[in-house]
């Protein structure tokens, strides 16, 4: 039995808002991952099955590795069609913010979303959600926003609105955000949620193969190169991987090609903290993963304008790669002093 943990007042308010509108925009964060696209598309399907005119707008390009999860539903990419996306947002009656805790994570969409004079709903599992939403359903203790969406559906009595495709999308999001149930966020009820999703007739082997065990050739080559040539081990238990623009260009980098690279060093038994820095056009993207008692969310918040979860966090550094690496070594020294 899956416990009903959603605040009844927030859930009833969500129902009331949905009852009074037809045009609904669903948004997620930039650098779209499995949980973001899975929760957004699944919620869109549920709302469409409810008779609503719902559409998903994503900030930037969907990684090729996640195209399989779309399963025929239409969506709009803001960075590719800003005029169309802007008009949709300006004419919507309700905005749903999925899998992010602050509008800034939607990149250039943020001003439009913030300024929209319509009700806004936050559905997310990250820490420290922004204030100002008409409905806030925030559960950082949950494995993923996909799990949270399913719990909302279950508690609201909307299970009949979930179809095989929506269940598949939610399954993908939970699977990718838990490392196929290998992370510490994989508590008993997550298995129950996934079991209920499987009952919708999803193709679990196919979804696992596509989400967890399939990469483009260039991605495989880039990640192999990064591990062999761009990874250093600090103090025996700390890994740092850096990829500059020249490295990325060498392998024709596309969005998503470095997905899960930051997790690779943790497969070495002695490594408890892994950091990956990638040179993007405007900043150095910083991703951190950890194991055991070592938390990385505070480090990303303090030093890299980011945040996340205890064992999985990210941020951005505005400067050169050399400066970012220097800061990283300063952080390592500070951590050592605190032990």
List its salient traits.
339 residues, inorganic pyrophosphatase (n-terminal core), Diaminopimelate Epimerase, Chain A, domain 1, 2 domains, six-stranded parallel beta sheet, six-stranded mixed beta sheet, 12 helices, 12 strands, 40% helix
Number of domains: 2
Poorly predicted residue ranges: none
Indicate the radius of gyration in whole angstroms: 20 Å
**Mean pLDDT across all amino acids:** 95
Helix content: 25-40%
Principal-axis shape equals globular
What does this structure look like?
There is one protein chain. The protein has a six-stranded parallel beta sheet with strand order 3-2-1-4-5-6, sandwiched between helices. It has a six-stranded mixed beta sheet with strand order 7-8-9-10-12-11. Helix 2 packs parallel to helix 5 (145-156), helix 5 crosses helix 6 (164-177) and helix 6 (164-177) crosses helix 8. The mean pLDDT is 95. It is α/β, with parallel strands linked by helices and 339 residues long. Strand 9 (273-279) and strand 10 (284-290) form a beta hairpin. The chain folds into two domains: 8-212, inorganic pyrophosphatase (n-terminal core) (Alpha-Beta Complex), CATH 3.90.1640; 217-338, Diaminopimelate Epimerase, Chain A, domain 1 (Roll). It contains twelve helices and twelve strands.
